[in-house]
Amino acid sequence: MKTARRKAEATNRLLARLPDLDRRRLLAKSTSVQLRTTDVLYERGKRIREVYFPTGGSISLIATLHGHDRLQVGLVGDEGMLGTSLVLGVTVSPTLALVQDCGTAWQIDAASFREELECSVALRGCLQRYVHVVMCQSAQTVACTRFHVVEARLARWLLMTRDRAHSDHFHSTHESLATILGVRRAGVTHAAGSLQQQRLIRYSRGEITVLDHHGLEASACACYVANQDTYARVMN
Amino acid sequence: MKTARRKAEATNRLLARLPDLDRRRLLAKSTSVQLRTTDVLYERGKRIREVYFPTGGSISLIATLHGHDRLQVGLVGDEGMLGTSLVLGVTVSPTLALVQDCGTAWQIDAASFREELECSVALRGCLQRYVHVVMCQSAQTVACTRFHVVEARLARWLLMTRDRAHSDHFHSTHESLATILGVRRAGVTHAAGSLQQQRLIRYSRGEITVLDHHGLEASACACYVANQDTYARVMN
DNA sequence: CGTGGTTTGTACGGTGCCCCACGAAAAAAC
DNA sequence: GTTTTTTCGTGGGGCACCGTACAAACCACG
Predict the structure, then answer these.
(1) Would the pLDDT of A7 be above 70?
(2) Residue A68: its pLDDT value, please?
(3) Which residue in B168, B170, B160, B178 sits closest to B200, CA to CA?
(4) Which residue among A69, A85, A136 places its CB closest to the CB of B94?
(5) Same domain? B141 vs B154
(6) Nearest CA to the C1' of C21 belongs to which residue?
(7) What is the pLDDT confidence band of residue B9, given thresholds at 50, 70 and 90?
(8) pLDDT tens across A35-60, in order?
(9) Is the pLDDT of residue A6 over 80?
(10) Among A85, A112, A80, which Cα is nearest to A12's?
(11) pLDDT at A124 (0 to 100)
């Protein structure tokens, strides 16, 4: 089942910041692709072949430990990009990149991207600032994962995903949420059940609806707002 | 009390990678400063006035949450630099930077540093790669903090600090280790006591000595080696 | 030599989450 | 319509770590 999405706003907010000329030159080398849930865009330690600028949906950045422990360390939507490593001159991905919520993105091959990076000062500046945002959010996530309880972290994730979906409705099972939050599936069921009882969300077999996003913000840890602030402060 | 250190090797490993000319130009604008334990070099959200290239000792990068929860998200020594944000064109520090282990560093004011960054391709390339290393290590730390027990994380920290001190002996109380690891002081006492009983370390009133670093590696989580591998892979 | 501050040892009850496991209910496949 | 798969609910025992608190050991200093 697909969620209704405002296709009219199919833009990427990073690209939107570029001067018209720079953006048009970049888009000329890009193709619009569909991102489908569970698609693997990058694998840890493997070469980055394409860069993505999502215009809808969201992609998880997932850290993998020796062993089978996994955990989400970042979430990318139309406010960001996939392939920050290339901005730093590194061609290998440090994390697994997994499509969480289906959508579309501009796709550019790595070589063309690096060419554009060379000749556009605005592109470099914008993307380097975005890299900094990712670093800040990563630091925040370290502390968040350590100190905050599952229910608050789940609420934060729901809000972040809602923002990127541009919709109160999106898809994710308890199982996949367990991987994202780095907890047991049963732990997610418990936390999600609590949020549902408070009438903040409603869900059924992977279909999640945010009923009261203000209430959800109250349940979420302050990391949600902190990340938004970081983005606004650094990018402006 | 000071630890004996090999002053002969007072170099920074990032700077050592630069072509002679670029390095000399950078050092011409730098001054050598002493870093003393508990010195605050950066504060969260505040302007970065100087950049540091440590040549000894180590500096903690510490994330602060709303509330009083704190946690180390990075450790910088002569293998790295302080002020990565400036490499990305951002002049504000995302974390608190606290001197853990006394030592020396090359200090450069922000403006001069940015000038050098403009005109040296090698400097940009080297430091951007280092930024990538920091991102990788941060992602690793998110998962490590979530999944690994205190004793393993403590062992990892001891090894990392030992590398940066270039000595088996260095200073840190259980109290400060508690902040670094994001646990209670009593938790550190327990874990440290266990490591001491295994004859891997010895400590007394903040003076720590690593007795068996191979044994310590076995007690530490794989994140220690993983971070070393990342550094070697990305920087070479 | 006593006093005060710092550092470390330890104990107790509590909690958040783990591991394991089973069952139920809804959707999908046949 | 029956079977298989996916998703979700729940329970019991256990463990790592928490919050708190108190005491002992050690060092610095008057």
Answers:
(1) no
(2) 81
(3) B168
(4) A136
(5) no
(6) A186
(7) low
(8) 999 899 999 999 999 999 999 999 99
(9) no
(10) A80
(11) 95
Nucleotide nearest to B148 (CA to C1'): D16
CATH number of the domain that B181 lies in? 1.10.10.10
What is the spatial distance, in angstroms and rounded to an integer, between the CA atom of A100 and the C1' atom of C28?
Answer: 22
- Examine the domain organization and report whether B137 and B171 are in the same domain: no
| Cα–Cα dist A89/B35, whole Å | 31
Find the CATH number of the domain harbouring B132: 2.60.120.10
The reply to whether A234 falls in a domain is: no
Length of chain B in residues, anyone?
236
- At residue A207, φ and ψ (nearest 5 deg) are -95, 110
What's the token pair of residue B183? 């646990």
3-state secondary structure of A159: helix
C3 C1' to B179 CA distance, Å: 30
Shared-domain flag, residues B123 and B158: no
User: Which residues from chain B sit within 8 angstroms of residue A71, using beta carbons?
Assistant: 142-143, 146-147
Phi, psi of B42 (to 5 degrees): -130, 150
Cα distances (angstroms) measured from residue A68 to each of A63, A71, A124, B223, B228: 10, 10, 36, 14, 21
Helical H segments across A106-166, by residue range: 110-119, 121-147, 150-165
B227 found inside a domain: no
List pLDDT tens digits, range A76-117. 999 999 999 999 999 999 999 999 999 999 999 999 999 999
pLDDT at B62: 95
CB B65 within 8 Å of CB A222: yes
For chain B, the distance separating the N- and C-terminal CA atoms, rounded to the nearest angstrom, is: 37
Q: Which nucleotides of C are covered by protein (CB under 7 A)?
A: 6-12, 16-21, 26-27
Positions of chain D reached by protein Cβ under 7 A: 6-12, 16-21, 26-27
Mean pLDDT of chain A, nearest integer: 92
What is the rounded distance in angstroms from the CA atom of residue B183 to the CA atom of residue B186? 8
In this structure, the number of other CB atoms found within 10 A of the CB of residue B20 comes to: 7
Counting the structural domains of chain A, the total is 2
Convert the pLDDT of each residue in A110-158 to its tens digit. 999 999 999 999 999 999 999 999 999 999 999 999 999 999 999 999 9
Q: What is the 3-state secondary structure (H, E, C) of B173-236?
A: CHHHHHHHHCCCHHHHHHHHHHHHHCCCEEEECCEEEECCHHHHHHHCCCHHHHHHHHHHHHHC
Range of the domain at A193: 149-220
User: Rounded mean pLDDT of chain B?
Assistant: 93
Look at residue A233 and tell me if it is in a domain: no
Residue B189 and residue B109 share a domain = no
Place B1 in a pLDDT band, splitting at 50, 70 and 90: very low
Q: Is B12 helix (H, G, I), strand (E, B) or coil?
A: coil
* Per-residue pLDDT tens digits for B89-101: 999 999 999 999 9
